[in-house]
Amino acid sequence: MLRQDFFFDLISMLLLYLCDMAIAAFISYLSHEKKYSPHTVKAYEKDLNDFSAFCLKEYELQDIESVTYPIIRNWIVALVDRKISNRSVNRKVTSLKSYFKFLMKTGSIQGNPLAKHKALKTAKKIEIPFSEAEMAELLNEIPFENSFEGVRDRLIIELLYATGMRRSELINLSVQNLDLSNHTLKVLGKRNKERIIPLLESMIQLFEEYFVLRKEVDNSQDSKAVFLTSKGNKIYETLVYRIINGYFSKVSSKVKKSPHILRHTFATHMLNQGADLNSVKELLGHSSLASTQVYTHNSIAELKKVHSKAHPRNRK
To answer: What distance in Å separates the CA atoms of residue 160 and residue 197, rounded to the nearest whole number?
Structure first.
């Protein structure tokens, strides 16, 4: 009996080890081949470990590669019972689905148990951009201090609005990626994809003013980064959020005031002024038009106004 228990424990340990190895291989694949960000990779790893823990606790199943859809469905039900939002549940299921696709690609399994799974319904996430009037009031009427932080904050706001870049792209913007003489900058986006973004004429003078003041705080520790804190370190996510939220609170009553809303504002205003959807897609660094089309609802509203005023059949 003891001998039988020993072999059972040995097999269990082996299966658990192989499962951990498969997850580790998948995580490595996401990092090195898919070029996902560390934050995204960590989220995938957590989702898989959580599911693995569920299988072990509820079914004493250590090899998640052999799970069936009913087991996954019960996991989804358990997540919903814990009051986890449908959007978060869908993200977790997406992690699992990607893992099974990887196992099929490597020949570890023959079929994806989530192949026919339908995502839970979620409410459409409506993000309201800042209006052109709010942007004009902030940039033309709200005073910025004539100091390193004041000039830096204005440059950050103007750059996000003028280029539509992501917060992470702004934080990681390097001095060597700026080409002020040609009015362009190079951005390293998601999955290490590079893109060139043009700079407005008005941005050049602001950059030059900023770099003069930047010398006062540059301690050479993070001198490659364009944007620094007052202590000479590279800026960080929370600081960028505080800058955007703080200044826009002076001109806007909108609930959400964040760097992403400023990116949303850039895209909406560009489209409202007649910019081509494909051009906006390239500027934003999207891989498909579907990602860019979420910004078109405001432009469609604007088009409806123009259509209503201009169409002969609507004239009284």
So the answer is: 12
286 flagged as catalytic: yes
Q: Which residue out of 91, 117, 186, 190 is catalytically annotated? A: 190
- 234, 222 contact by CB (below 8 A): yes
Tell me which of 87-96, 107-116, 165-174, 286-295 is least confident. 286-295
pLDDT tens digits for range 123-162: 776 778 999 999 999 999 999 999 999 999 999 999 999 9
- How is residue 80 written in tokens? 């919903």
Which listed residue (92, 97, 214, 286) is catalytic?
286
For residue 296, the model assigns a pLDDT of 66
166 has catalytic annotation = yes
Question: Do the Cβ atoms of 232 and 218 come closer than 8 Å?
Answer: yes
Q: Which of 166, 257, 264, 269 is catalytic?
A: 166
Distance of CA 292 to the CA centre of its chain: 13
Please tell me which residue in 263, 264, 269, 281 is annotated as part of the active site: 263
DSSP H helical ranges for 33-147: 38-59, 69-81, 86-105, 132-141
Cα–Cα nearest to 191, from 30, 48, 24, 23:
30
Q: Under a CB-based contact definition with an 8 Å cutoff, are residues 55 and 16 in contact?
A: no
DSSP assigned state of 186: E
269 is catalytic: no
241 is known as an active-site residue: no
Assess contact for 90 and 122: CB atoms under 8 A. yes
Domains of the chain as residue ranges with CATH: 2-105 (1.10.150), 132-308 (1.10.443.10)
Can you name the residues that pair with 197 across neighbouring β-strands?
185
Catalytic annotation present for 236 = no
Instruction: Assess whether 39 carries a catalytic annotation.
Output: no
**DSSP 8-state code for residue 115:** T
